[in-house]
Design brief:
Helix content is 40%, strand content 24%. The protein is an alpha/beta fold and 301 residues long. The chain is built from 10 helices and 13 strands. Strands 3, 4, 5, 6, 7, 10, 11, 12 and 13 form a 9-stranded mixed beta sheet that branches. The two termini are 58 Å apart. It has 2 domains: 3-86, Arc Repressor Mutant, subunit A, CATH 1.10.10.10; 94-301, D-Maltodextrin-Binding Protein, domain 2 (3-Layer(aba) Sandwich). A hairpin with a 4-residue loop joins strand 1 and strand 2 (56-58).
Length: 301
């Protein structure tokens, strides 16, 4: 017989004080309850209940076994409830951390559709240009761009973005167009101060070699939109992700500075706490992101 069934029958007899009330509680016959308890005692080789014509009570061994059995049954019930909850409709608040530029340009415009599809949810999107500690800072998930740090977090890549050197036509007309990576050292460079590498660009040459461009920078800011505006204004050359420059390039406000360079591709990930189960609200939002970015195509981000 099933161990949990035997445990539940025994524990219910102790809780109810007898076989008749236990049978009524479990919705089975009195003989079935007695059979389960007898099978348990036979398997364990111990008498767990003292039986008289008027009363049923646990033995000393039975009382100790009851304490542990009740814990096991409680854990089993909670496990069942957890799985049921995880398969239920997403609800509650979803708190997410998103890089400022990507969140403003790409995620914020999608939130209306997501919330309309999940009326029992609310979203608290916090725009930050740093890696937050998900659990200690109270976030359900985060979006991260580029190489991920080693951690116990789970991650799902839902899209990627290209990076290119861009500058305004008027800048290139005034200062000339660099033909090689080495030529960048003679130009005015615009840097993003939140990059972990500092004012260093890692650029892949046509040969496949990764080259480093080090420069104090003509301008350094911690906001991608400001960096794009500086490039559009002709202040210098910026190294930007496509979700920032694609519209400006389509309008002719900036150009690809060295077209022969390979397109740099950077992954964009949803990261969330470890565990065998993913909260329905987190799973729903990640699935939504995967679908929407697959529909939009890489030319927009």
């Amino acid at each position: 017989m099933d161990r949990l069934t035997e445990m539940e029958a025994f524990a219910t007899v102790v809780d109810q004080g007898g076989f008749t009330d236990a049978a009524r509680k479990l919705g089975i016959s009195k003989s079935a309850v007695s059979k389960h308890v007898s099978s348990l005692e036979a398997r364990l080789g111990a008498r767990l209940l003292n039986r008289t014509t008027r009363r049923v009570s646990p033995t000393d061994i039975g009382l100790m076994y009851y304490d542990r059995a009740r814990r096991v049954l409680t854990d089993a019930g909670e496990a069942d409830s957890l799985v049921t909850a995880l398969q239920s409709e997403p609800s509650g608040q979803l708190r997410i951390s998103v890089p400022t530029d990507f969140g403003a340009a790409q995620v914020a415009p999608l939130l209306g559709d997501f919330l309309r599809s999940h009326p029992d949810m609310t979203v608290n999107m916090v725009l930050k240009n740093r890696y937050v500690e998900l659990i200690s800072e109270g976030f359900d998930m985060a979006i991260r761009i580029g190489e991920l740090e080693d951690s116990s977090l789970r991650a799902r890549r839902f899209c990627e973005t290209g990076q290119r050197l861009v500058a305004a036509p008027k800048y290139l007309s005034r200062y000339g167009r660099p033909e090689r990576i080495d030529d960048l050292n003679a130009h005015r460079l615009l840097h993003y101060s939140s990059q972990a590498s500092g004012n260093v660009w890692k650029i892949t040459a046509p040969s496949g070699e990764v080259r480093q461009v080090r420069s104090p920078g003509w301008l350094t800011v911690n906001d991608g939109q400001s960096l794009l505006r500086a490039a559009v204004g002709g202040l210098g050359i910026a190294y930007l992700p496509s979700f920032l420059y694609h519209q400006a390039m389509a309008e002719g406000l900036v150009e690809d500075v060295i077209p022969d360079l390979p397109r740099e591709v950077v992954g964009i990930y949803a990261v969330y706490p470890p565990g065998r189960f993913t909260q329905p609200k987190v799973r729903a939002f990640i699935d939504f992101l995967v679908q929407r970015f697959a529909e939009s195509g890489p030319d927009t981000w």
